Amino acid sequence: MKDVHCELIHRSSQGILGNPLTHSSAQTTHERKTFADGTTSTDMLDLNKTLDDLAKFKKMFLKEEKMRRQAEERVAELEGIKDHLESEITQLHKRVKSNQNMIDIYDNLNKINKTKIDRMQAEKSANQ
């Protein structure tokens, strides 16, 4: 393939080849030349087009590969954020449970105090 590519470069430098996508119809109907190795100018134009197509495919592939890497990086970043938020939620659940325990203790103390107050008032009423 390297020899063909070198031959393509050599022939294109002599003006034999060009980009078939930019040829006018008059240029594409040029006289067909046959070279010593049996290839024709049409073969070389086809090869040039194939190389152009491969270059475009490579460029597209590299762009898609870059986008895939960026997407993977973003996913990793979002997973880190998710882990952090899950940790925060766990901490909040613990605080809520602790606060609920404090509320339960406060309610129990209020019941005890109310019972004491009721008992004291009953004793006071009984003494009068």
Summarize, please.
By secondary structure, the protein is an all-alpha fold. The chain contains three helices and no strands.
Could you please describe the fold and organization of this structure?
The chain has one domain. 80% of the residues lie in helices and 0% in strands. About 9% of the residues have low confidence. With 128 residues, it is mainly alpha-helical. It has three helices and no strands.
Can you give the mean pLDDT?
83
Structural class: mainly alpha
Major pleated sheet: none
List the secondary-structure elements in sequence, H or E. HHH
Unreliable sequence segments? 17-28
In total, the number of strands is: 0
- Bin the helical content: over 70%
Which of globular, elongated, flat, extended, rod-shaped describes the shape?
A: rod-shaped
Number of helices: 3
Q: How far is the first residue's CA from the last residue's CA?
A: 118 Å
- Compute the number of structural domains: 1
Strand content: under 5%
Rounded Rg: 43 Å
Keywords summarizing the entry:
128 residues, rod-shaped, mainly alpha
Structural topology:
Elements: H1 2-13, H2 25-28, H3 41-127
